[in-house]
Automatic annotation (TrEMBL):
PANTHER family: INNER MEMBRANE PROTEIN YPJD. The gene is ccsA. GO terms for biological process: cytochrome complex assembly. GO terms for cellular component: plasma membrane. Residues 50-261 form the Cytochrome c assembly protein domain. Pfam families: Cytochrom_C_asm (PF01578). It comes from Tahibacter soli. One of its GO terms (molecular function) is heme binding. The keyword Acyltransferase does not apply. Keywords: Membrane, Transmembrane, Transmembrane helix. This is Cytochrome c biogenesis protein CcsA. The chain crosses the membrane at residues 6-25, 37-55, 61-80, 87-109, 121-147, 174-197, 209-227, 239-258. InterPro entries: Cyt_c_assembly, YpjD/HemX.
Length: 266
């Protein structure tokens, strides 16, 4: 099947799943959550076929291709999370975003090809992308948690996405579990970088390395504060979002400057 057709199929399935999950938000009868997530699951499979088919079966880390890969992993992680906890509200945000990033990579971005990398560097990259996807999902949960907290304070628990979220304590617990998993993956990313990358502080990597270390300290402080002082609510969400912004700058900020502004290959 042509890549453009697979992309169109994945985009359509993502949008259909998001709309089905969003039906309760407009006071309409909702479709079975399992069916909606099943549609999204087929979209994830089609998206995965596009990612590997469009880039010669390799792991392409050019800016738009990397965005599409992270979107794929985040969408897949959303399905995994929903298998354990009913957080359909995540899909309303994640699936349309995945559709947009896939569409940009397929139809708007210039064609690119994966660079040759040995298995050690590929392992480092895969761990990094998984960590980024998990922490991205935790940040989205943090935003939803902030919305829940605000709705609770204003006595508006029946408004917007809050209506399709689990109780606030469950949302918060899930957020911290994802932060913990993402922190482990980020730690492994730094460790494999030290072991496998020739010069982690080379000129084109120093900003990425330093910002990743800063993000690691921020997430570590958040988890320590949660364990030692019981941090929660706005303070926890604020620190989580700060860490996520730093990590965003470390990976995609540096790629944007190097590839799109300075025209250097990754």
């Amino acid at each position: 099947m042509p890549i453009s057709v697979l992309s169109a199929l994945a985009v359509a399935l993502y949008i259909a799943a998001a709309l089905a999950l969003a039906l309760p938000l407009v006071n309409r009868a909702s479709l079975p959550r399992g069916a909606s997530l099943g549609v999204a699951g087929i979209g994830v499979i089609a998206h995965g076929a596009v990612v590997f088919g469009a880039h010669s079966g390799g792991l392409d880390l050019h800016f738009f291709a990397a965005l599409s890969v992270v979107a794929l992993l985040t969408a897949a992680m959303t399905l995994v999370v929903n298998a354990a906890r009913p957080v359909a509200g995540l899909g309303v945000i994640v699936f349309p975003l995945a559709a947009v990033l896939l569409g940009i990579d397929t139809w708007l971005a210039p064609p690119t090809h994966p660079a040759d990398r040995d298995w050690q560097i590929q392992l480092h990259v895969i761990v990094a992308l998984l960590g980024y996807a998990v922490l991205s999902l935790s940040a989205l949960l943090g935003l939803l948690l902030a919305a829940q907290d605000r709705a609770l304070r204003n006595h508006r628990l029946s408004a917007g996405l809050v209506r399709v979220l689990p109780p606030l304590t469950l949302t918060e617990a899930l957020m911290f579990r994802l932060v913990g998993a993402g922190f482990v993956l980020l730690t492994l990313t730094l460790v494999t970088g030290v072991l496998f990358v020739d010069n982690l502080f080379a000129q084109h990597l120093v900003h990425k390395t330093v910002l990743s270390i800063v993000a690691w300290f921020v997430f570590g402080a958040l988890l320590f504060g949660r364990w030692r002082f019981g941090w929660r609510g706005r303070r926890a969400v604020r620190l989580l979002l700060i860490g996520m912004v730093v990590l965003l700058l470390a990976f995609f900020g540096s790629k944007f400057v190097l590839e799109l502004l300075l025209r250097r290959t990754p």
